[in-house]
Amino acid sequence: MNKIERINDFVIRFCNVNGSGSASANNLFAKAIFRLGVPVSPKNIFPSNIQGLPTWYEVRVNEEGFLGRRGGIDITVAVNRQTLFGDYQDVLPGGYFIYDSTKPLPEKFQRDDISEIGIPLTSLCNEAFSNPKLRQLLKNIIYVGVLSFLLDIDLSILTGSIKKQFKKKPKLAEPNIQALEIGFSYARDHYPDTCRISVRKSDKLTNEIMMDGNSAFGLGAVYAGATVTGWYPITPSTSIIEAFERYTNMYRIEEETGRKKVAIIQAEDELAAIGIVIGGSWNGARSFTATSGPGISLMSELLGLAYFAEIPVVLVDVQRTGPSTGMPTRTQQSDLLACAYASHGDTKHILLFPCDPRECFEFGADAFDLAERLQTPVIVMSDLDLGMNDHVSAPMQWESDRKYDRGKVLSADDLENMQEKWGRYLDVDGDGICYRTIPGSHPTKGAYFTRGTSHNQYAAYTEESSEYEANMKRLLVKWQTARTLIPSPRIKIRDPEYTIGLLFYGTSTHAAYESISRFSRNGLEINSLRVRAFPFQDEVIEFINQHSILFVIEQNRDGQLRTMLINECEIDPAKLQSILNIDGLPIAASFITDAIQGSNLITIPESLQKQNKPGGKQ
Amino acid sequence: MNKIERINDFVIRFCNVNGSGSASANNLFAKAIFRLGVPVSPKNIFPSNIQGLPTWYEVRVNEEGFLGRRGGIDITVAVNRQTLFGDYQDVLPGGYFIYDSTKPLPEKFQRDDISEIGIPLTSLCNEAFSNPKLRQLLKNIIYVGVLSFLLDIDLSILTGSIKKQFKKKPKLAEPNIQALEIGFSYARDHYPDTCRISVRKSDKLTNEIMMDGNSAFGLGAVYAGATVTGWYPITPSTSIIEAFERYTNMYRIEEETGRKKVAIIQAEDELAAIGIVIGGSWNGARSFTATSGPGISLMSELLGLAYFAEIPVVLVDVQRTGPSTGMPTRTQQSDLLACAYASHGDTKHILLFPCDPRECFEFGADAFDLAERLQTPVIVMSDLDLGMNDHVSAPMQWESDRKYDRGKVLSADDLENMQEKWGRYLDVDGDGICYRTIPGSHPTKGAYFTRGTSHNQYAAYTEESSEYEANMKRLLVKWQTARTLIPSPRIKIRDPEYTIGLLFYGTSTHAAYESISRFSRNGLEINSLRVRAFPFQDEVIEFINQHSILFVIEQNRDGQLRTMLINECEIDPAKLQSILNIDGLPIAASFITDAIQGSNLITIPESLQKQNKPGGKQ
Amino acid sequence: MSYARPNFRHPKQPENDAGFTRRDYEGAISTLCAGCGHDSTTNAIIQACFELNLEPHRVVKISGIGCSSKTPAYFLSRSHGFNSVHGRMPSIATGANMANRDLLYIGISGDGDTASIGMGQFAHALRRNLNLNYICMNNGCYGLTKGQDSATADRGSAGKKGVPNPYESIDLCELAIELGASYVARGFSGDKKQLVPLLKGAMAHNGLAFIDVISPCVTFNNTASSTKSYHYVREHIETTNTFDFVPLQREILTHYDEGTSQEVTMHDGSIIHLHKVDSSKDLTSRQKAVNNLEKEKEKGRFLTGLLYVNPEIDETHDLINSTLRPLNTLTEEDLCPGSEILDRINSAFR
Amino acid sequence: MSYARPNFRHPKQPENDAGFTRRDYEGAISTLCAGCGHDSTTNAIIQACFELNLEPHRVVKISGIGCSSKTPAYFLSRSHGFNSVHGRMPSIATGANMANRDLLYIGISGDGDTASIGMGQFAHALRRNLNLNYICMNNGCYGLTKGQDSATADRGSAGKKGVPNPYESIDLCELAIELGASYVARGFSGDKKQLVPLLKGAMAHNGLAFIDVISPCVTFNNTASSTKSYHYVREHIETTNTFDFVPLQREILTHYDEGTSQEVTMHDGSIIHLHKVDSSKDLTSRQKAVNNLEKEKEKGRFLTGLLYVNPEIDETHDLINSTLRPLNTLTEEDLCPGSEILDRINSAFR
Ligand SMILES: Cc1ncc(C[n+]2csc(CCOP(=O)(O)OP(=O)(O)O)c2C)c(N)n1
Ligand SMILES: Cc1ncc(C[n+]2csc(CCOP(=O)(O)OP(=O)(O)O)c2C)c(N)n1
Ligand code: SF4
Ligand code: SF4
Ligand SMILES: [Mg+2]
Ligand SMILES: [Mg+2]
Predict the structure, then answer these.
(1) What is the DSSP letter of D185?
(2) Cβ <8 Å between B52 and D33
(3) Are B244 and B332 in a shared domain?
(4) Directed axis angle between helix B538-546 and helix B560-569, to 10°?
(5) Contacts of A600 (CB under 8 A, 6+ apart)
(6) Cis status of the peptide bond prior to B236, with omega within 30 of 0
(7) Which residues of C touch D129 (CB under 8 A)?
(8) Does B189 share its domain with B160?
(9) Is the complex ipTM higher than 0.90?
(10) CB atoms closer than 10 angstroms to residue A349
(11) Among A7, A87, A595, B455, which residue's Cβ finds the most Cβ atoms within 10 Å?
(12) The pTM is what?
């Protein structure tokens, strides 16, 4: 047997039952690798229920920093008997299969191309611990100890993590450390020299952080000064609000009174959630909400109102597969059209596409500036993968002298000193953005009655066609202004001949760069543009025009970004090839590479053709 | 002064206050012209309130049968003092201004290029009638009498209509006829030989009917066998349900019991309305609802569910300008994107575009066949103009042996005799459409648990990626099947060189044909394609490919059909020029003609350039 | 994943009068948390259907979204079911019921599904007295989204996070009575003996029967400081009159002493015998029913049992005077006025 | 179109204590039907604001969609207003109120807007006891869409089409009491004398004050067979205790005999004196309040007046323990933890 033999470059999959406490053990493992300075990316693949169903935790370790899903499993830790056989079969030839050998493997487990590593997890655990709850939890810790030995991970890194975790309850640390040691010793005694995969300390990660996108966004909203949120629970967006609440509990308590400088309202549904945001923003407080697809659908009427009445809204859509009884715990990028054109009538909304936690934080904060500057909804398009999985990312940044851009708001003084007649919908500056006022500011000036579109420039009611038409067209001027304010795309030109261009966004980024780099290593240079916002800027159009072969990578069925590019940039559809992943799992580099090769549009370097790729699955 | 002098070709505008009973008088006038066999098209331009605000009723009379809005007013009947001056100014030079001269016109009314025709409506009425309610109503009838004289309309046509209207209460007919005569005599006595515009009996209309699209749709649903509707009031869609109710009260009462063969539920909102439709359809009853833009937004989550769970839905969107506090009583075609891609996730819905009452009836009926055949939502895209205004149209048709196409539904017998294992989502026929069962049909076979997408072919729960992906792709096969079943476009080839092509749909049809005919009369032949359904068939793509210059006519700001054409047919955007009317009024032929001329894409025949066009307004 | 239950059938399983065994009313194996109250409620539904001799395929199950709304997968696998979207069970059930008035409709919802996002549809299904068995599995929290407080969480009650709920709770039974339900009961998933007859009475009832089943969430809301925990509920339960449900088919054998029992005859002729404990608990007066609930609430107790019943109120189909035949069985002949009438209609538009 | 009112001001218009004339509280000229009940309600609002010496610009008006929801254009033109979408006034008001707790919020809605599409938001604003004056102009029909029955239309009542409503009606006041409103009143647009003090009490109240104003629709629901017509309402009205509203600023001069009056002290120190007619009408007990309503209903009468009040219940801001400062006035200094803390947070993720 040709054992897989690698340092800092492998994929390990933990196969658990959800609700069994495996998450923290698996996280402990991933974090240990991170702390060794080695790039790592865990992906949690969980069912839409609370307890008792299969869940997988797939960790990719890659010294080069390629952290998209790779596909193919080198090491499996199989703890879930429900899926044991499937998990067994998924191990790549030469790989390692670690399982609970308290019960022997059934007969049909007959592979001779992998190394089976039996650890009697249950019996080891039962021998050492008597408390039944601890028994269940620590079984997971034992296999982390096993891995520590097999992969040559310094045990002290793991014990250190545990001590940190239980800083406040050191008593609880002890049995955990004991469990680690049990696993370590058992593996050392029974499986010396078995595993040829190992982890070695690296200097690849120095300043990076490892966190989930939802926490980063929640924190961004705290930094941006958001004070009002109405929200309704929905996976995978709930943890944004939870993070927001956690951080406001830390940093937004009024010292003198103990009162909170924030209003967080768990609404009765998404219609109310967005209503609360609109009311709060209209009344001058930075307000936001977070939801997922079903919530977007429900919010669409009010999003349209906000567009027409020109009210700032910050909304995060953590995308999952539709509909409600779809696969709500799987990732997708399939709400682009629903968000970009949300609501009836002619509407268009600003979208931002973060790709990692740092950008979640940054766009989280910028979204408020943009929404207030542009007086319109800004929708941050995250997804389950970005929002709920931990990602290695550059640290979050905040300029210490950063001021909020509250946009064109007239203060009491502004109103007092104003000579001209103020018009809520008067385009004084020619950028399509008008001056707004906040209720209660001035005794006699600036009051108006907010409505959708049946108003003139002075916010008086009218059904006059010409006023209506002029207003609708001004909104398009504002749309043009938006293009100058939103985050610009990230362009990487490697091939000055501009032959092949790749466009992508959000969580396809890592896999895309990995694929590009594989082509590059084989002599084919590919340029790339990462879309970071909608509407699209001139750079996007230029990039497309410059290239003769273009691929748009997305995680949806219908090529939604491509649709928007064609439409809004007036691009000939023939120019854009879609690469679409719709299986609900984060896209893998190999998928992209295969698609580009399979397109028959380019000549594939021979070297690449010969490379053997790790298999798919899931 | 050069008086306008025409037979059977003019535009008359009635300027009233809403809630004053003018609607039936104005309708009486339009109907009289219709009964004289002359093509006529009334458009009601009304405010979003119930009483006391200005409302206009614009009637175009056109022997040639061009019945889109023309623009420009030849005759004004000005009864509303609020808008008197504006209405005065809008009359074309050479035109006629009929007003209530009980009070003299103010000083600033100083045009010498129009004929002022003062009729003391109020005093005439007060002299003749004492009942205050009658006084208000009959003032309107008096001016119809005036017009009868001025335009040379046989009074007996009008009295005949009145008698028909009051068949059941002949007492009420009398004062109406008296009022007609008062107006007629006054005009005859004071304004002989004043008006050079006249109406003459014609044979242009023989078999035609004149009705509103909403009534036609409601009747279509009765014929199609719809039995369940959940609905929520919203202008301009309410009258669909009212018509449906009216006709079911006439034709769906069980003789023996007096009970109704229909269930009409006024729902608590649009979310419930669409829920009722989904529940009814799922349980095997033909079900439908009607709404307008705000309702579409609210229905979008459930529309997505119906798409994924593959449940027939018939929905009519009678479009108006967005949002709620937009101009709800103005027409627009601006919900195409909202409907075509309603809901989050990758969704696409069938759309039908009727252009006249006959098609409202026809598509109204066909929509049920299509929805059941395709097991998916079918959205009929009407608009305020089509739905609420009377239109001259070919009569409604029903094949006497027509059977309902209930699609692939397994009966108890089918189930009983079935040998294979039935799978709700098994594509047995390769057309993407699977066999469904209705609750309660069979004691042991055919039961399943309906969900969105987390199911396998046998409707069992799964989160397996490959099953999900296969199912999502099958839905695309079904989408292709849909293209073969939906109404095909109407193509008119006048220019065999295929130079210029016009694409349009719905209520732009009349104006488009008129514009084409004007070009034709000046030696420029233009081809046309009227889109009748989405997804687009091959004919649409071919038509576009055949032509070098293409215009897409729409009544929205963002060119929504063009967007869909580009996207779904993979058309180079550069090929399609938008002609967009967004003022909330029905599009006029002159607007289209101007836009085509102004595009600088074609050489305009000199003859056409010189023609003077009647002015715009409103 | 719901695993198929082994098809093995014990030969000696007892059959009910309709010839079905209890297993004929079961569904797939539950994937809820071990000990979840919803599973007990599911079992009670199975038992009630079995005891009522229902034909499984003549029952329809409709639910919203939530752990509770998954349960229709776990009972009556021979019935059609519909797991719809969050909060919209009542409207889907309305449509389904309109299409075929002859089936028995079981609507399953949760407290999040009903009292928050579904409040409007809940209220209006009640108002129309839809012929539906509306079962709300009430755990005071959002189970499937990991335990947030719901609108039925009591003020001061705390779930897994330990933060007491600051808001007033909504009493769904009071609301149901207020809004026009014609049969209102509260059960406890832990008390099958009481719950099964409550469900049977509901199924025999013609009109909207609302049953609020306190159904603890062991994972997120079974804490010491929660008022929807097994422990707390058991300690604070108070029952209205106990009662017997006597289906029409059965001979009435039990005898009740004058004055100790109130008899309610259901639409199908079944009879509910209430054993009066306290004369104030007259179950056919809305006002008294609400007062009973309020009184116990003031004492910090949950009142369970049959709270209100009025079999006289018309259900939706009767209110709208629709045909007694299922609408979904009508054909062209019944529904289409035909081409001749269309000609007449065309003429009216000339 | 709302026409601007001529700016001419009569020199002798009386001023209130804050120096404003009644005209300072007016708005654009109404475009509702002549005789519409909503216009009278609008006038009562103007009067109440005038008498309470409110600063117009410190009031915020929010509405849904409907004839009723247009009225904010017709009062308080110096206040900001928001005509939002159908049924969502409560959530918009919630957001606005969260942003600035220092303004006075008037929410205007209709019976369609509240009892149908807005039912969920209505219920939950009540549950949170939002500090809002929720005024529902209740005409039993959908005025703006031409007179369909609403959910508050009484069973048997018939509007312009003459078809009696078959459904149970929803009593919004009972519901409001049930769901936690802390001030609940019913008025009649035709009785300004009663309505103005009810509104004043509501405005002085800290928490959700719900006022159901029967406000006839002359165009669609003022028929002989309608129970929401002017005539019918006048004939069937019953009032609870009459009462005086005494604002804090005024010295309390009136004297009440022991036992004949109940005194309720409002949050701002104003006092409501209820003149007791009937001791059962204790307005601080929810249960009694509901029973009072039910009792009159059984007699076929509308009970108007102040129905329930409890100034002790915390409003939303207090329930969530938010700062006393308006959130919309907080700045970077108050809100942003700064870059140093971010460095610390970053470290925690290493
Ligand atoms: C529109 C929409 N919003 C939010 C969700 C997320 N969601 C799923 S279940 C649920 C709550 C379930 O609570 P409950 O009805 O009480 O059921 P339980 O799980 O407690 O039985 C929510 C909010 C959703 N599926 N759809
Ligand atoms: C989502 C949505 N559905 C429907 C409508 C149409 N609509 C406008 S007003 C109204 C009802 C108004 O009734 P009510 O709230 O009682 O106000 P009233 O006019 O009687 O004062 C409806 C249904 C709408 N604007 N938005
Ligand atoms: S989370 Fe709670 S409600 Fe959901 S299955 Fe588990 S115990 Fe039941
Ligand atoms: S329709 Fe009715 S509610 Fe609307 S303005 Fe007229 S009278 Fe008032
Ligand atoms: Mg729950
Ligand atoms: Mg109303």
Answers:
(1) E
(2) yes
(3) yes
(4) 100
(5) none
(6) yes
(7) 168
(8) yes
(9) yes
(10) 23
(11) B455
(12) 0.96
